[in-house]
Amino acid sequence: MSQQNENQSQADTQTKKLGIGTDEWVAQHDKRLARRVGALGVLDFLNEKVSNRTRYVALLLAAIAFGFFVDNQYLLRIASNLGVFLMMTIGINIVLGFAGLLDLGFVAFYGFGAYAYALTSSSQLNQHWPTYLSVPAIVITTAFLGYLVSLPSRRLFGDYLAIVTLFFGQIFIQLVLSSDSITFPGHTDSTDITGGSNGIPGLDPFKFFGQPFKSTTDYYWLLLIVLTLLLIAVTRIDRTRVGRAWRTVREDPLASQSMGIKVNNLKTLAFIVGAAIAGFAGAIFAGIQSAVFINGFDVPLLTLVYAAVILGGSGSIPGSIIGAFVMSVLPEILRVQNYSEMLFITVLVLTIGVIGKTWKRFALNIVSVVVIGYIVKLALNASQLATTPSKIWAIAPVSKALRYWLVLPSNRIVWGNIAFVALVALVAYYSIAREKIKPLLLPLIAYISIFLWEDRLVADANTTRQLIIGAMLVVLMIVRPQGFLGKARVEVL
Amino acid sequence: MGYFGQQLVNGLTLGGVYALIALGYSLVYGVLQILNFAHGDVYMVGAFLGYFVEIGLGGPLHSKVPVPVMIFIMFAVSMIGTGLLGIIIERFAYRPLRKSSRIAPLISALGVSILLQNAALLLFSANIRTYDTSSFIPSTLGFSLGSITIDSVRLTVLVLALILMFALSRWVNKTQLGRAMRAIAVDRDAAVMMGIDIDRVIRWTFFVGAALAGAAGVMNGLLLRGVSNGMGFVPGLKGFTAAVIGGIGSIPGAMFGGLLLGVVESLTQGYLSTNFSDFYTFILLIAVMLLRPNGLFGKKAIVKA
Fold first, then answer.
1. Inter-chain contact A156–B289, Cβ cutoff 8 Å?
2. In terms of DSSP bridges, do strands A291-292 and A200-201 run parallel, antiparallel, or are they unpaired?
3. Which domain holds residue A6?
4. Minimum CA–CA partner of B29 in chain A
5. How many domains does chain B have?
6. What is the pLDDT of residue A269?
7. Would you say residue B10 lies in a domain?
8. Which structural domain, as residue segments, surrounds residue B154?
9. Is B117 in the A-facing interface, judged by CB distances under 8 Å?
10. A466: pLDDT confidence band, cut at 50, 70 and 90?
């Protein structure tokens, strides 16, 4: 009890220190010094010693080298998808990060761009526009759509805006799904516009000056150019009058309005810019895929993009890049079992390292997990409860190594489900447990997560990914609401 | 007339379900000013709990207890289970964020929603289940008013929804806890100074709101719709829309908004087009937002004192 009070009072002083007139940097000086040990220290060092400009240049050079030396179409496809994803996170960063509008209909603009490209460059409506005509037309139309959506939305804020725009996204999906048999007035037969749930296949590739794009490599270069220009533009906008005005609107609409800032116009502008970028990204995506399907533009994509922006820190462009990288490449890695195994073990070990803070605690935790595993295995072997699995579930080398240590029950589904519920309960308990109990819980949680991963999750990559995203959003909001690289809001007390 | 009346009855039944969901949003919004995005998924969990109780009692065809008792147990278990789930969600996802910015609980709620949906996918698989109501309540059972037939399932759902709404307004208006809840909605700081245990009230609010969503989930199952892990999203959206139309934070508003939404949806489906009914709901929402931004029953909010 006294321990809890102590924690409480510590937290109180922490908030008091951040009051008006206290510099955040000074207030957190002790905390920063304390962080400098263990696994986080290395990350901290990298974070502080390298300038932003160096990082951007390094990234660009790496991207150019990637385009020159990599010939694997699969890798280029992943890289191009990352590029499209990055465009979206940058777009959301403008709407949410700069202007502070939670626009949950963002993916609809992206989908609109993709469908608009599909309709102007396929046999669906027998339109084959040249790319230099169709893409600008799409960007302008999407921007106009963004303007239309902003009209009712700019009177709303916060939760209302979120739900209205989310609804708007659903409407887009419903319209596309139902527009495969539309009867125009004066006609008796119905026209198929969007192909409904079948989508529109067989789109033309991008074509410039009579030269059609031949492979993903061409799209990769296009995306690299577009992204470079976009990143330069966005970092510049952030420093202009409009960028500063957006920030004030985000922090306090009422105060900025009384300072003479035209809040409504700025909100509309953020919507328009965000929508235009999303539409552009959608058109490129449609070109790469050479087909569009409506389920690609539904809520899962929305959560993925938002998770990326929030993970990196909304308002921070480097944060968005990291977030996009994690969220877009991670699923591809999770798809290959061998990589996903390695990634899982790495993340687990890193997490234990970060929570343990010191190297000594870290080593102690790892040893405890190994010991727990052996005890469980030996106990079950002695009581003859453990059954040898008839077939090996996981094929990755890591799994094969783990097999000698981990219990693999014959009924994996049931035991996996029990482990899942137990893990959720333990993690929840951990978050409210007393400091003395926490170190005891940690190895247990780690063991159960390995068990769950090997027995259940590894075979179900998609669900796993979503579970991780969901848990990450909740934990992130509690631990670090501003994301990895975002700046904490100045809360007026 | 008969067709119109039939659509009206269908709409009211659907509206009852929406109203119950909307009430959960409104209650939570009233005390915490947060939008509980995970509410639709609580509704999904409620539907699953009802399904498992039905299976546990011997399934739709070979029930071990009489049908009314079975339905009662389904509702009771589902409401208590989802109520507890609501308390857990509040404790772990919202309480740590009570002092942070407005957007943080919203995103945390989004996370809870994703977690619940995928946890259900992992635990219960992607199969769509049905309560198979018609095998224990014959669809011919019921009565007719002229050319309008009201079958017994719809009647049960409608009557239960009305009873729950009535019980809720009694709870909010007559009990001490309800009074405390209203006090917190008006001014949280003042309520604390008056000695109200704010955590306890918020816990109960989440319990009641989530239990209503659980009841709505079972009703959805009884109305012969599928039970699956993604079923909560659209009704959750509609429930929130209903709460906003009625004026969020207002309890009669949520009830009226839900019923109105159900009727509008049913009538547009009956007369205009089945494919675009959500579109009309959306237009209704936008119209209300433009004409009465605080909803039909809402009070004008003072943004900053």
1. yes
2. antiparallel
3. 2-35
4. A159
5. 1
6. 92
7. no
8. 24-231
9. yes
10. confident
